Amino acid sequence: xxxxxxxxxxxxxxxxxxxxxxxxxxxxxxxxxxxxxxxxxxxxxxxxxxxxxxxxxxxxxxxxxxxxxxxxxxxxxxxxxxxxxxxxxxxxxxxxxxxxxxxxxxxxxxxxxxxxxxxxxxxxxxxxxxxxxxxxxxxxxxxxxxxxxxxxxxxxxxxxxxxxxxxxxxxxxxxxxxxxxxxxxxxxxxxxxxxxxxxxxxxxxxxxxxxxxxxxxxxxxxxxxxxxxxxxxxxxxxxxxxxxxxxxxxxxxxxxxxxxxxxxxxxxxxxxxxxxxxxxxxxxxxxxxxxxxxxxxxxxxxxxxxxxxxxxxxxxxxxxxxxxxxxxxxxxxxxxxxxxxxxxxxxxxxxxxxxxxxxxxxxxxxxxxxxxxxxxxxxxxxxx
Length: 384
Known about the structure:
Elements: H1 12-19, H2 25-31, H3 36-46, E1 49-52, H4 56-66, E2 76-80, E3 100-104, H5 111-120, E4 126-130, E5 133-134, H6 137-145, E6 152-156, E7 159-160, H7 168-172, E8 182-186, H8 193-204, E9 214-219, H9 224-234, E10 240-245, H10 247-256, E11 269-275, H11 288-293, E12 303-313, H12 323-330, E13 340-348, H13 354-361, H14 363-368, E14 371-377
Parallel strand pairs: 1-2, 2-3, 3-4, 4-6, 5-7, 6-8, 8-9, 9-10, 10-11, 11-12, 12-13, 13-14
Helix pairs in contact: 2-3
């Protein structure tokens, strides 16, 4: 006799556990057609991260206008290359819970950005600006200070259209929060003049960065003294510091010896990102690195990273790095807490003999078992 099997009803929690493994949009869209419960879950997953360009933005606006509840699901919003004047946002998008805002190739004074920031200013914790422009320093700082919950900022290739210094009265009215925890400030290509003003603006507003604990920055020509004063003012809270220098700045450091890490006693990680160039230019330019390391007073530093772009150098050219002097400094009591030294050298002409040479220069680290070395060969034979 045939007996119908008893239907098994899975608890909703198990449904969610299984559905959480679904990632591609096509499957999510298909899942939304199963039932109302799956529709609600699929909408939350589909709208949690939104990337909008000039083509997708009108479609997004229509979706959010027809179903305002979708806006509450957006946690990460990326806007790319939306024109300043031709696209205006409707005022009923109901986007209020964005935590990460990424802006690429746009004007930060765009009505779209202003509208979203006004609705999400109490939820945005991460802000990424890449290839963006601002009318002036006051407008740029106003955007940052409008976000009281802002903790992480990533800036790359940002500039002011009117780079003149703002008056004290213009900036004096800003209510500057101090919740910033991490900052990444990069200009690429290095030394692009207009981007320098963004770094200088941040360096002048120390209260805005007074609680900064993680800093990644590329110091460009003219900013070395200002950066040194900045470290003296806010370095006490830094736990991680990654610094890159252009050749001109390295010359300044070698000549003036202006930079010191003594104001950063709580560092756990310190990283240097440099380029290698010939000693024939007048001096072994990396000789300032041991002098800089000798200023470290961080007794609890765990990791030191040294990344060097060799620019197609041969083995004979690597002597300008002065790694043996760096090795001697790292033997001092100031670095007794080190657990790992990461050395990464890329774009060497050939790897033959390079690893052995570096390990010989850093013999003290090898003996202590601290060295982690990575050497990468270039694809060109040119030394620039």
